[in-house]
């Protein structure tokens, strides 16, 4: 294979045991996933600006219950071997910009909206083995045992100003992402040209680079619909006591009278 795989994986802090029965695990999940959404957009944009074609760019947050290990945040980029050096630097530049708090209100709100929509669309059906894994992850890694209904209810009813949410987000990402703390760096190339010390050196040097990431809401360029949108179906939404309206364009709206 003539593809190089560059990855950076941060092992994230565990929830304090006294906070396991609180909303803290869910709040942490939300803001780290928002960080993944921001990183995804920025990294794709940076690679495009540098004319680096990528076979894959993936920024992900993994819960302990999925792998029975500490929560982790992972970035994987697959590029041609000639671009591996640049890909290592690009990951560092993007994560440095996020860690240092360089996220604007509009970019944060749109990334948070994507998280909320994805989270609400996710319908977890837990088997007995899944329940066992959740219990094990809670015992070993301090994960939450809150039910899916409780988590959805919290996300749908929580009210906080955008300024306060952005401040919490910046605090969490600053504490979670460092260039030399709890991060595992790898670069797999066909010729094995990069040693672990090479990768670490490139990453830490690039971490200090200053790059601006201007943000423009992509939805502003969407054409306005010309046809009328109709309600296709209506279903009861038990968590809020309202109804879920599915529109003819595929959108879903929760309506509560």
User: What's the arrangement of strands in the largest beta sheet?
Assistant: 2-3-1-4
Q: Output mean pLDDT.
A: 86
Strand count: 7
Q: Rg from C-alpha positions?
A: 20 Å
Count of helices? 8
The rounded distance between the terminal residues' Cα atoms is 58 Å
Question: What kind of sheet is the major sheet?
Answer: 4 strands, antiparallel
Helical residue percent band:
40-55%
Strand content: 15-25%
Quickly give the structural class.
alpha+beta
Order of helices and strands: EHEHEHHHHHEHEEE
What is the global morphology? Answer: globular
Given as residue ranges, the uncertain stretches (5+ residues, pLDDT < 50) are none
Structural features, described:
Helices cover 44% and strands 19% of the residues. The protein is an alpha+beta fold and 257 residues long. The termini are far apart. The model has no long low-confidence stretch (mean pLDDT 86).
Structure summary:
With 257 residues, the chain is of the alpha+beta class. The chain contains eight helices and seven strands, in the order βαβαβαααααβαβββ. The strands form two sheets. It has a four-stranded antiparallel sheet. It has a three-stranded antiparallel sheet with strand order 5-6-7, with no helix packed on it.
Give short descriptive properties of this protein.
alpha+beta, four-stranded antiparallel sheet, about 45% helix, 8 helices, 7 strands, globular, about 260 residues, about 20% strand
